[in-house]
Design brief:
Blueprint: E1 2-3, E2 8-13, E3 16-21, H1 31-42, E4 51-56, H2 79-87, E5 93-97, E6 100-102, H3 104-110, E7 114-117, E8 122-124, H4 138-146, H5 148-157, E9 161-162, H6 163-168, E10 174-175, H7 180-193, H8 209-213, H9 215-225, H10 233-247, H11 250-265, H12 268-282, E11 301-304, H13 308-319, E12 324-327, H14 331-350, H15 356-365, E13 366-369, E14 380-383, H16 389-402, E15 408-411, H17 418-423, E16 431-436, E17 445-450, H18 456-468, E18 472-477, H19 484-501, H20 505-515, H21 521-528, H22 531-540, H23 547-552, H24 578-590, H25 600-620, H26 627-638, H27 647-654, H28 656-670, H29 679-686
Parallel strand pairs: 3-4, 4-5, 5-7, 6-8, 7-10, 11-12, 11-14, 12-13, 14-15, 15-16, 17-18
Antiparallel strand pairs: 1-2, 2-3, 8-9, 16-17
The structure holds nicotinamide-adenine-dinucleotide (NAD).
Nicotinamide-adenine-dinucleotide binds at residues 304-310, 327-329, 333, 337, 384-387, 391, 395, 412-414, 436-438.
């Protein structure tokens, strides 16, 4: 007894053996853990030991496999072997769960006879988020505890299940308040003294009966749950594997699950999702940040402007318990803005995703003011007023006199020069951009825009704040549109060109959604409103050949019931409109362009390659530190399908020489020089390399 190896401890408490996994930070099931578990299970044969508890040290039960082992030859013992050894133990086995028991961690626990958990524990099988399926029996055992349909929904979503729900669903047998290990030991003794049955999960059949009697019901549920998963392979594999749980003998189902896992783990889909898993964590790392820079506290915040973005940003604060004051110019505007926030919460309640009590708590954290002086006593100020440089500079000038030293002064501008805004203060080191995406309370991406003089402390604070707000922060440099919108603009130009050359909005949008985006550029334009850009263009004296005539005809998008598409009253489904086709055809004619059929393949190339090209320029300029940051921005801010790994990852998959050649062709055909392959892209293509070979550019962003 004692230390089995560097990651496993085995001790006794009277007649109960306690095996503890200790592999910080999340007790990942690396090889040493698996080998140690097998060894510990071998050592508990002593007849004086009547029961076994499996627990984890630190802040959580095991959060699953060690992802860095994926794609490498598996070193024996695998997790399945560990679970088989656990199931062979003839004494009661009890898993003691706390924190998160995820993936392989939960699968290990499912190999025990019983599971107890501390309040606040969350369990789940998140493998789908990495493009794979649980590969150590999760798809066979979970349906035996909660029923196939529920298990299918849980495995397809990959989301963690809270304690109470897991208890109600039969995954957890008892919730332990107080000391978890002591509670687990007491539970184990109860099992022994009461001679409770030692039925392994693999042998339980009761929850499978309903699906066996009505397999069609399972099929219908599966179809509903995956109606939007496109051509992805992992969801289909999960459906098959969970079905096997009630149609095949257990061991056959297990073997098939293994085979499916091996097939999935080598797909581009899974590689892409693993890439994003790491990229997301990397995107907030600033290469030249010195060691030991500490974020400032952010206990109270002010948001200036109660418009679309200000309201959403205020909600993001309240949602995580940070008190926030919203500042407006007038009482009525403030009331209107806060009413809209309350309405949004009410809608969430109606959808069953929030309780009235939670809404009340959140609303109580949001207060209003018509005095900018409210910014005098807070740690963070986020400005979200109209997109006008003069106005923003005026506000930052005032903030300079009002805010305490060290207060983070952030602007939500989407286009303006942050360095110029910073210069309106005498503390440019405290100024940066926090570019939220709409709706700000929902969208995960937070572009943190680093100005020339932004201090490391301000950057560290913004990153920590972003994480606290449950966002995915990505640090970028100052340029027009930053990373995301700058690339989006390239797609917009090409989308209009496609219409002029012969495509229709529904064809372009169709190709883009088939690629995996939730929406195409034209449906997105209708949703956002076409009039905003139209007014900006008019002020700048710029023309858009198709959107301008649409706006002149009062077609502003969904808000007027008509845009690139027509919308039935109150509905959001875009329907193609012959009137739009006429406007497009007339525009082609006016410009002397002969319309022709454009293939889906070409549409996809022209929607994606110009963005990749711009991404290459952004990298060369040091506006983004790494290609993977650009991928993160497109996945969390613009709906790029995660299973395609982001534009730069996708470019490497397609191969840069092909992209270079196609861009050269499209540049020649259109006469648009910006489509010519960017120097970095051309160089990498010539060297036979990909974007993945480009390292982080230290200190370049700004
Ligand atoms: N709407 C988007 O999708 C989006 C996305 C990202 C960033 N942004 C940026 O966010 C900012 C706000 O955009 P929005 O869409 O929320 O605009 P909005 O017009 O909906 O809201 C702006 C609000 O600011 C208020 N305001 C104006 N001057 C003020 C002042 N001096 N003090 C306090 N409040 C003042 C206005 O009354 C209005 O309620 C802009 O910089 C915009 O570029 C917008």
């Amino acid at each position: 007894m004692g230390s089995v190896n560097g990651s496993i401890d085995l001790r006794r408490d009277g007649d109960v053996a306690i095996i503890t996994i200790d592999n910080p930070p999340v007790n990942a099931l690396k090889h040493e853990v698996r080998a140690g578990l097998i060894e510990a299970l071998r050592q508990i044969g002593d007849p004086a030991i009547h029961a076994v508890v499996i627990a984890c040290a630190g802040r959580t039960f095991s959060a699953g496999a060690d992802i860095s082992e994926f794609g490498k030859p598996l070193k024996s013992p695998g997790l399945q072997e560990v679970i088989a050894a656990l199931e062979a133990v003839p004494k009661p086995t009890v898993a003691a769960l706390h924190g998160t028991a995820l993936g392989g961690g939960l699968e290990l626990a499912l190999g025990c006879h019983y599971r107890v958990a501390a309040p606040g524990t969350r369990v789940g099988l998140p493998e789908i988020k990495l493009g794979i399926l649980p590969g150590a029996g999760g798809t066979q055992r979970l349906p035996r505890l909660m029923g196939p349909e529920k298990a299918l929904a849980a495995i397809l979503s990959g989301d963690p299940i809270p304690t109470a729900q897991a208890h109600a669903d039969g995954i957890i047998d008892e919730i332990v308040t107080g000391d978890l290990t002591a509670g687990a030991i007491a539970f184990a003794r109860k099992v022994v003294s009461e001679h409770r049955p030692l039925t392994l999960v693999r042998n339980r059949e009761d929850k499978l009966a309903a699906a066996r009697a009505n397999p069609q019901g399972y099929g219908d549920a599966a179809a509903k749950l995956t109606s939007r998963s496109g051509g992805r392979r992992a969801p289909a594999a999960v459906i098959e594997s969970v079905r096997n749980a009630f149609t095949l003998p257990f061991d056959d189902g297990l073997a098939r699950e293994q085979a499916l896992f091996r097939e999935l783990v080598v797909t581009d889909e899974s590689r892409a999702q693993r890439h994003i898993f790491f990229a997301e964590r990397e995107a907030a790392r600033v290469p030249d940040m010195p060691q030991g820079v500490k974020p400032h506290p952010f206990e109270r915040a002010v948001v200036i402007g109660a418009g679309t973005m200000g309201g959403g940003i205020a909600m993001s604060f309240a949602n995580v318990g940070i008190p926030v004051i919203v500042v407006e110019t007038a009482k009525d505007l403030l009331t209107k803005g806060l009413d809209r926030v309350a309405d949004t919460y009410r809608t969430t309640i109606k959808r069953g995703r929030l309780t009235q009590d939670e809404m009340d708590k959140r609303m109580a954290l949001i207060s209003g003011s018509v005095e900018l002086e409210a910014a005098g006593n807070v740690d963070v100020v986020i400005e979200a007023v109209f997109e006008e440089m003069g106005l923003k500079k005026e506000i930052f000038g005032k903030l300079d006199t009002i805010a305490r030293p060290g207060t983070l002064l952030a602007t939500n501008t989407s286009t303006l020069d942050i360095n110029e805004i910073a210069r309106a203060t005498k503390r440019p080191q405290d100024v940066l951009g926090t570019h939220f995406f709409s709706p700000a309370n929902v969208m995960r991406l937070l572009e943190i825009v680093r100005g020339k003089e932004t201090s490391f402390a301000a950057l560290a604070t913004a990153i920590a704040l972003g994480r606290k707000l449950a966002k995915v922060p990505a640090v970028v440099g100052v340029c027009d549109g930053f990373v995301g919108n700058r690339m989006l603009a390239k797609r917009g130009t090409e989308a209009e060109r496609l219409l002029l050359e012969g495509a229709l909005p529904q064809e372009v949008d169709g190709a883009v959604t088939e690629f995996g985006f939730p929406m195409g550029p034209f449906a997105m334009g209708d949703l956002a409103g076409l009039d905003v850009g139209w007014r900006i263009r008019k002020a700048r004296g710029v023309k858009a050949e198709i959107t301008d005539p649409l706006c002149e005809a009062g077609r502003f998008g969904q808000k007027t019931g008509k845009g690139y598409y027509i919308y039935q009253a109150g509905a959001r489904t875009p329907t193609p409109d012959p009137e739009v086709e006429q406007i497009i055809v007339a525009a082609s004619k006016r410009l002397g362009i002969e319309r022709h059929k454009i293939s889906r393949e070409e549409i996809v190339e022209r929607m994606v390659y110009p963005m990749i090209n711009e991404g290459a320029r952004i990298l060369a300029e040091g506006i983004a530190y790494r290609p993977s940051d650009i991928d993160v921005i497109w996945i969390y801010g613009y709906g790029w399908p995660v299973w395609r790994g982001g534009p730069m990852f996708y470019a490497d998959l397609v191969g840069l020489p092909h992209i270079r050649d196609r861009l050269a062709l499209y540049a020649k055909r259109s006469g648009d020089k910006s489509l010519e392959p960017a120097p970095l892209l051309a160089k990498l293509a010539a060297e036979g390399k990909g974007f993945a070979s480009v390292g982080a550019a230290a200190g370049a962003a700004a």
